[in-house]
Amino acid sequence: MSGLGCRSTAQVNEQSTRAGPASTYLRDYITEKRQRARAAQALRDDREKALIERRESFELDHLERLNEALQTLGRGAGRAHHADLMSARQTGHYAGTLLPDGYSDALDEANREVRMLKDLVLDEELRNLVGRARDAILLPSTLMRAPVEEAEARFAEAVPLLSAAQAAIAARIREIYLTAALPRT
Question: pTM for this one?
C-alpha cells in the first residue's frame, strides 16, 4: 500500500494535529471578521434610522406649524379683505382706508411666520406652492384704491391656491406618518 500513495491512519492523524491550530486560528479570524462586519453594518443601520427619524420629526414639526400659520394668514387676509370691501362701499375704492386696529399687525405677523416656516420646507415643489399661495393671498391687500372687481377677482384666485397648499402639506404629513409606520429594512 505504501507504493500507491496511500497514507496510513497514523500519518493522517499526525498531519491533522499539525494543521489543527492553524485551521482553528483561520476559522476564528474569519468568524471575528464577520462579526465585526455585522456590528459595523448594524451601527450604520442605527445611524441611518436615527437620521431618518430626526429628519421626519423636523419635517413634521415644521409642516404642522406651517399649516397652522397658513390658516392664520388666510383668516387674517380674509378679515382684511372684508374690511377693505366694507370701506369700498363708502369710498368707491378698494383699500382706500386704514384697516381696523390690529388687522394689519396680525396679517404681518402671520406673513412673517409663513415666510419663515416656508423656507424650512424640505420639498422644493411644496415650498414653491406655499410661496405662491402666500403671495396670492396677500396680493389683494396691496391693491390700494383699485377697482373692487379686481380685488375680488384676485382674492377669489388666492383662496383655491391657499387651499391647495394646505392640502399638499396635509398629504405630506400623512405620507410621513404612513412611511414611518412601515418596517425599516
Answer: 0.74
